[in-house]
Amino acid sequence: MHDARALIEMGAEAVRRLARRGYTLDLSALEDLQSRRNQNIRSADELRAESKRVASEVQQTAKQGGDITKLKERARELKDEIREIETGQEQVQEQLRDLLLSIPNLPDDAAPDGDSDEFAVEVRRVGTPPAFPFEPKDHVDLGEATGILDFARATKLSGPRFAVSRGAGAALERALATLFLDLHTRRHGYIEHAVPYLVTRKTMTGTGQLPKFEEDLFKTGVADRELFLISTAEVPLTNLYADEIIPPAELPLALTAHTPCFRSEAGSYGRDTRGLIRQHQFSKVEMVRIVDPKDADAELEKMVSHAEACLKELGLAYRVVTLAAGDTGFSAQLTYDIEVWIPSQNTYREISSISNFGTFQARRANIRTRGEDGKPKLVATLNGSGLPVGRTVAALLEQSQQEDGSLVLPESLFPYLGFRRISADGTPEA
After folding, report:
1. What is the C-alpha to C-alpha distance for residues 409 and 414, in angstroms, rounded to an integer?
2. With 90 as the cut, is the pLDDT of residue 272 above it?
């Protein structure tokens, strides 16, 4: 969320930057609401001061035996006027908050122009995509042929866009999550958390999922309790520090968690509805960093390297791109996507997004630290996937496939799996 005063002071610059991501800022509406809010505050303060004076006059006049009828009448009028002003103030404040909650973050000037992945700028490529002497299969065919993935039974249980993993497939998912957590906690310095998968509306609002993306969320409730299933562990991890002031000596905070993620993917029709790429439920290891704003740019680069380390450990070919301003997420200033090679599609596909949110989420969730002067100031937040398990499985199956239908897995997974190969019939083999 933005500071209304900061946007108004930026004026045309704020309009320009938001236009880069396809958002039209109604600056006059924002200025009007801010002006009405300030005027209401001044009017209420003046009326309260007058009410206090009248109350004092009532006491003094009564002690002197004077007539207090008109004074008491004025006191009642003032109470009514104050109540009316406060009601108007609440309405204006709610309108201003709703407007501010709807305004996306200002994109960083480092983000290229454009509004889709076609305008992303490649930063680097790592690894060589495998060349096959046969027509490579996609991960769905590979998973079903070996029996380690079962989409039909998942559909029977829950409908489309769900998957069941079995045998070596289930073991592979567990091994990947453990490998990623070990890398982040033992090598990268993150603290692992086990967090709730159901959170409140306030928590979802704190990281920017609400109100804009409510149609993409799964919601539940019991009696009068409203709860949302998390779309990513970013939500509970970041909000752990909502309404807190973090001592500067504790920054940066590095948090990680392996959780299921739930997304309705509203509006996604036709694309990636088959297989593990775009599902209603998937698991993911998430990274979150909470830092001093002056360190945010360096921390973003560090997080990208942490996500890349997971892919390097698995020997998967990938590339890193900078997303265009118009393709950057609602809450982000700057986003790097890591795209892994998918042989069946003969292209790179997104497997991790790592974003710097600046102080945008911190203002919404009221997460602060203290500056050199000792006064509270907002922190910066960053997050990224490190990595999603399902998409990693898809890339692994496709990049490791053999002509006989077997799968040869990377050496780094052997300590977690106890096998290096999955035969064409799904049997684990050392």
Report:
1. 8
2. no
Q: How confident is the model at residue 222 (pLDDT cuts 50, 70, 90)?
A: confident
Catalytic residues: 263, 278, 350, 353, 391
Residues contacting residue 330 through CB under 8 Å, at least 6 positions apart: 104, 105, 208, 212, 213
Strand segments (E) across 305-346: 318-322, 334-342
Fill in the amino acid letter for 254. Answer: A
Looking up tokens 């889709």, which residue turns up? 116
Question: Is-contact 331 204, C-beta < 8 A?
Answer: no
Q: How far apart are CA 52 and CA 31, in angstroms?
A: 32
Q: DSSP letter at 420?
A: S
Sort 128 into a burial class: Cβ within 10 Å, 0-12 / 13-18 / 19+.
Answer: exposed
Model pLDDT for residues 19-38, shown as the tens digit of each residue: 999 999 999 999 999 999 99
- Cis bond before residue 252 (omega within 30° of 0): yes
pTM of the model: 0.92
Rounded to an integer, the average pLDDT of 364-377 is 97
Mean pLDDT of the chain: 96
The count of other CB atoms within 10 Å of the CB of residue 84 is: 13
